[in-house]
Amino acid sequence: MTTSYTVSSNVYVNIGDLEPGRTAHGLKVRVIRCYRKPSLHKADQDGSLEMIVHDEIEDRIHATMDYSVFKEKKIEIKEGGLYKIMTFMVSQDMSQYKTTNNPLKLRLFYLTSIAPFEDNAFPTAMHRFRNLFEIANDIAVDSFQLIDVIGRVVSYQKPTFVAKVETRRMDFKIANTEGRQLGCYLWGDYIDPVLAIFEREDCRPIIICIQFGKITRIFDEIKVSNTFHITKVTVNEGSDVFKNFLDGALVQKLHSRTDRKVNPEGYFKNASGYSFLDQFFGKPF
After folding, report:
1. pTM of the entire structure?
2. Which residues contact 85 (CB under 8 A, 6 or more apart)?
3. pLDDT at 122 over 50
4. What whole-number distance in Å separates Cα of residue 220 and Cα of residue 215?
5. 135: burial class by Cβ within 10 Å (0-12, 13-18, 19+)?
6. How far is the C-alpha of 250 from the C-alpha of 109, rounded, in Å?
7. Which residues contact 189 (CB under 8 A, 6 or more apart)?
8. Could you say which of 32, 149, 178, 243 has the lowest number of CB atoms within 10 Å?
């Protein structure tokens, strides 16, 4: 039997305090991921607004709201934004694929209040990257837990049409800063924006981030793919996540060399950083 209860108060608690049978209050959270999920009855219509959020100690929980309710509220939810959430239901998360390791889920409804706020001290924890070596070697891998991975693209194959599922698939491999590789693939509409960057000669190295990717076992190999609607794929983005990856890779390549100044940010702003980065990464394909 699923336990649920209503939260309605002006006192804020952490996500870890939300346990069945206990009265909780409001939450202050940062939105990690926000996406629309199609209706179960009409695939061409939005059925719900889905969010993954974290609190000030970086605990996570998944939240869902009927899309018709969301439209009536006329609020704007932005990924990375901070929000106060009041009056909601908490129940067991019965989803097959988990976006968090929290067994509970928030259900937002017409009485729910969502308001933005500002707090420069509130942490930003948009990703929880898994080690590519651990994934490839099946170390603590849960096929039903969606994960984040980031790496340099070292090879890719042209998309092929898979008749069984009536959509396209594109396979590629990524490597971490230590050269550990992991197979990945994308389905459907996720392919074209990524392929356009893969095919550009002026985009080297290519760094790709798969957020909330799905682990799949194909024969004896473990790969990561997208799952529709939830997964977010970004390539060569100028965010701190990508800059930190490049910074770590360059530092590892340079080792103790101090005669060169590492500036990964320049790579994203213009082409001047390309020749320097390519010198250490080499051409991936």
Report:
1. 0.84
2. 26, 27, 28, 29, 53, 63, 106, 108, 112, 113, 114
3. yes
4. 13
5. buried
6. 48
7. none
8. 178
